[in-house]
Amino acid sequence: MPVLDFHLRKALHTAAGPRTLDVALALAPGELVAISGPSGAGKTTLLRLLAGLDRPDGGFVRAGGEVWYDQAARQWLPPQRRPLGFVFQDYALFPNMTVRENLAFAAAGQPGAGPLVAELLALMELTELAPRRPGALSGGQQQRVALARALARRPRLLLLDEPLAALDQPTRLRLQAALAAVHQQYQLTTILISHDPAEITRLAHRVVELDLGEVRRVGPPAAPPTPATVAGRVLAVLPGGACGCSCPVGPR
Ligand SMILES: Nc1ncnc2c1ncn2[C@@H]1O[C@H](COP(=O)(O)OP(=O)(O)OP(=O)(O)O)[C@@H](O)[C@H]1O
Questions:
Q1: Count of domains observed in the chain
Q2: 157-161 and 189-193: which strand pairing?
Q3: Which of 58-62, 76-80, 120-124, 165-169 has the lowest average pLDDT?
Q4: Could you read off the pLDDT of 171-223 as tens digits, one per residue?
Q5: CATH number for the domain harbouring residue 59
Q6: ipTM of this model?
Q7: Does one domain contain both 163 and 244?
Q8: DSSP reduced 3-state for 4
Q9: Number of the ligand 1 atom closest to the C-alpha atom of 213
Q10: Which residue's CA lies nearest to atom 8 of ligand 1?
Q11: Ligand 1 centroid vs 109 CA: distance in angstroms?
């Protein structure tokens, strides 16, 4: 059974005129799916719709046996009740809290919150920076805090909008390894927006290529293109094994 199953439609006002974002996808437990595509393709909008930060025009979102959104049944779960972690490009850290306090706030109320915060500080190479406030950190450091804070909520589902984009290459490589480790260790299912083919190949089981709201390809990273449009728009999700890779996707 997929951890996340959705079909979302949303009118976009793009530089090329009106378009419709129209994406359907089912993610298996433990899967990491990368979303790539040119600027304006609708990648961030898709994550915002999944998080409930924007209203779709139609479709549904089901996650962990729960309905988050269903246009036909008029169901809508507000963003604060969707158990997911997300890192968007603006980080949105609390400016008046230290790094440690930002993480502790997110972890509050969970068993083992203290050790979890310490573990995440170490994993994201933030221990030295724990007493600082976000304003005293570089963009890349803030991005690492945002990632650690998203994990501090112990979500099962993680939405990442280019979480490593602001990092220099050596740090980026180290944190890709850390991300792969936490993805496995914390039993996450993840959607990752990335423009970096090497990063996608390294981290993702599948990649969805978007352009102007439409899915151009879905399949294993760096594989030959697989046509994935139906009636010029909706993507066909490849059933388990059909994409020829080792991804853990089961039939819908
Ligand atoms: N709420 C909205 N309603 C309608 N159109 C929107 C909305 N938000 C963004 N758009 C438009 O939809 C298109 C897709 O935007 P989006 O930010 O999702 O693209 P993206 O693929 O994430 O791009 P980038 O790689 O530059 O971040 C853009 O042309 C944008 O202007």
A1: 2
A2: parallel
A3: 165-169
A4: 889 888 888 988 988 889 999 999 999 999 999 999 999 999 999 999 999 75
A5: 3.40.50.300
A6: 0.93
A7: yes
A8: strand
A9: 14
A10: 45
A11: 35
